[in-house]
Fold this protein.
Amino acid sequence: AQSVTQLDSHVSVSEGTPVLLRCNYSSSYSPSLFWYVQHPNKGLQLLLKYTSAATLVKGINGFEAEFKKSETSFHLTKPSAHMSDAAEYFCVVSGGGADGLTFGKGTHLIIQP
Amino acid sequence: DGGITQSPKYLFRKEGQNVTLSCEQNLNHDAMYWYRQDPGQGLRLIYYSQIVNDFQKGDIAEGYSVSREKKESFPLTVTSAQKNPTAFYLCASSTQLRGRGNTIYFGEGSWLTVV
């Protein structure tokens, strides 16, 4: 069975400092993993996805994530936060559910000026 | 540009009234989905469709109905049987229903409020 745990419901960082959003997963096979971002009153936008190629995946807006099979983790990072990064972030693992995906509950990223 | 268009962005429903949310995609995707999102919550699957003229219930289908008469369109009707319909509704699509690497793309969402 698939599951995904976003370890922090809220993360607050200062503008210009690094961002780390943590995601652990459980899967009975080698999964695909995704990060989506949702700004207020907007749909989910794909940031990046891992499908079995390079374990370090680069996405849009300077974000990247590293797939670590031994730790069953797929943490999202960005070297320097920008005010426009303030949003909700969802980690998603393939498998489980009728839609073939299991969504995390989301992490709310707050950027302090 | 290809994408998913949801309308209206904001909709108000009176008690006992059915309302329909529109979803149109021009991505040539076979699979389409409807999700409900409550404030501060994750996504819950309402209905999904793998192909034209076929759709299946998701986790919270009670009080909702859909149709898939055209590949591009997957409207969601919120019926009077849905007792707590106030939420943000997201339509999505993908090239196929499942499969490794299958990526779901989302529309901008629609807010439904009961008045």
